[in-house]
């Protein structure tokens, strides 16, 4: 969503949001994902384990678009469309296992991620 919204905003186009924009996602920066994987690779006790690598924070699509619009200093007026069939309403991860076992925490928040 970040790259799609950025493209639209930078081209002064109205981004589309399917549904009311209040659906949530957990947006994580790739640098945080890489760091979690490096931590896991360094820890023999992590072998064979599964970890959620995310921020642990639910962000609405409306909030994402508003944040990006503010950072890019571009006004936004999304075009809302029908919800997509089968789309998950709320999605974010519990990252307690990664925090505990890997001693890992996400370092890049949404505002930093959208600003870079």
CATH superfamily: UDP-galactose 4-epimerase, domain 1
The main pleated sheet reads as: 2 strands, parallel
| Tally of contiguous helical segments | 5
- Per the CATH scheme, the topology name is UDP-galactose 4-epimerase, domain 1
Give unreliable regions as ranges: none
How far do the termini sit from each other?
Answer: 15 Å
> Class, according to the CATH hierarchy?
Alpha Beta
Strand order of the largest sheet: 1-4
Number of strands: 4
SS content category: mainly alpha
Annotated CATH architecture: Alpha-Beta Complex
Average pLDDT metric = 92
Explain the overall architecture:
- This protein is mainly α and 116 residues long.
- It has a single domain (2-106), classed as UDP-galactose 4-epimerase, domain 1, CATH 3.90.25.10.
- 41% of the residues lie in helices and 9% in strands.
- The protein contains 5 helices and 4 strands.
- The protein has helices at 2-10, 30-42, 61-72, 96-102, 110-115, and strands spanning 16-18, 24-25, 59-60, 79-81.
- Helix 1 (2-10) crosses helix 3 (61-72).
């Amino acid at each position: 969503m970040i790259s799609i919204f950025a493209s639209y905003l930078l081209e002064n186009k109205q981004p589309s949001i399917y549904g009311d924009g209040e659906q949530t996602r957990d947006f994580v920066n790739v640098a945080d994902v890489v760091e979690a994987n490096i931590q896991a690779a360094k820890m023999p006790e992590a072998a064979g384990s599964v970890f959620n690598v995310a921020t642990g924070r639910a962000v609405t699509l409306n909030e994402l678009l508003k944040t990006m619009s503010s950072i890019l200093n571009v006004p936004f007026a999304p075009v809302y469309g029908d919800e997509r069939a089968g789309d998950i309403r709320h999605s974010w991860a519990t990252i307690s296992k990664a925090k505990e076992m890997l001693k890992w925490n996400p370092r890049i928040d949404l505002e930093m991620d959208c600003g870079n």
